[in-house]
Amino acid sequence: MKIKTKEDYIESLKKQHVVIYYNGEEVKDRTTFPAFVPHINSAAKTYELALMPEHEDLLTATSNITGKKISRFTHIHQSVDDLIKKVQMLRLIAHETASCFQRCVGFDALNALYMTTYEIDEKYGTKYFSRFSEYLKKIQDENFMLVGGMTDPKGDRSKRPSQQADPDLFTHVVEKRKDGVVIRGAKAHQTGAVNSHEIMIMPTQAMVEGDEAYAIVAAIPLDAKGITLIFGRQTNEERKLECGIDAGNCEFGVVGGEALVVLEDVFVPWERVFMCGEIDFTGLLVERFATLHRQNYGGCKGGVSDIIIGASALAAQYQGTLNASHIKDKLVEMMHLAETVYSGSVACSAMGSKTKSGAYYPDPLLANCTKHNITRNIYEISRLAHDIGGGIMATLPFDKDLRSPKIGKYVEKYMKGIEGVSTENRMKVLRLLENMTGGTALIESMHGAGSPQSQRVMYQRLGKLSEKMKMAKKIAKIKE
Ligand code: SF4
Ligand code: FE
Hints:
Helix content is 49%, strand content 14%. The chain is α+β, with helices and mostly antiparallel strands. It has two domains: 6-279, Beta Barrel (Butyryl-CoA Dehydrogenase, subunit A, domain 2), CATH 2.40.110.10; 284-463, Up-down Bundle (Butyryl-CoA Dehydrogenase, subunit A, domain 3), CATH 1.20.140. It has a six-stranded mixed sheet, with no helix packed on it. Fe (iii) ion (FE) is lined by residues 100, 191, 256, 444, 448-449.
């Protein structure tokens, strides 16, 4: 692994000049830009923890292609144990960051492609799998962070890619050359894009006849000519720039940092193309990538929930309500909800199976169920946090008010909770809760890894309703 430490990671980002816009201006150095630093710190944890002997087992693995020690974030799952370790690793990192550490998206893209390129070759005699394996070796060796570029802007959702008034609303191949392809389009809300090394472009949905140009998978360095990143605005964005108490979690942020990635006629050599026109494999690839990412959510959001629960208990303690029976009951309910989502991630991993490529894959129905629970449980956990924390979370004075030579004494006096706990500490924990349980953080739990409706579609497909009807008939002794 060439990139080992946090410093190596930051240095590698500094060396690669990526065109990034923030609030209408180009960012010259992405590694020192205050709005990006929390996301960099969070992703850096995936490197830092891997170097700690006590976390080595979860954060590293042995490459099935080279036999070398690699980051688990570049590993292809070789067993059910690997699938479970992935979930444990995510909860652990969430405990360290209380945020999204972004690197799982590229990790899931690598695994989905490993399985799928193998099967494309089997059907069509293509050479995608060996090409992809070569690419994977390089990623493992460099220890790069990848963006999993799946979601297209999609324009008019009632129309197919090839029916859109503007063909670029879905990413597509505009030219096939002897040496490679030229790609145009965009990928929307790409987690971790501003602090990654490469993007893996994948189709956003199952494609049908006529959509061949949209069935494209390609790995592209983010500094390739024609790529522009436009960072998405977040709730409480300015607080990140101030980096005081009001930011809640200034070091790691509360979400991943998403960007719109524009691809304006980007050239990709053939050795970096892993699907080109095989429409019949697009649905399978999307389903696999989605399943692998939905598997994660009980791990990372379970870990984030643990911080919300801890902060809620602290807020209660600091205002003297921790021993009230209704508060204890609410905290118990929050724990129940968090462990429920974690159980889902462990379950879909434990029920995983081997694909033809040899890579292991979580149970898709259970993985979708896990993510679907996230879209509800995190809201409920956040609702309970608001209930416990109280209205003060919404009306607390500024950090600067507390520090003001003139009015600081009033904030100090009237925002105080129990004796022995400083007003500053009370404000810190309330601000952490406020930032973690609202705005962008909640929306990410709803739509990250796919909107709830996309999980319900999977229930319809995989839920075996007719078998359930048959079982009911048998028990009711119905003969038709
Ligand atoms: Fe990883 Fe969770 Fe962030 Fe997705 S939301 S990239 S699974 S930390
Ligand atoms: Fe996410």
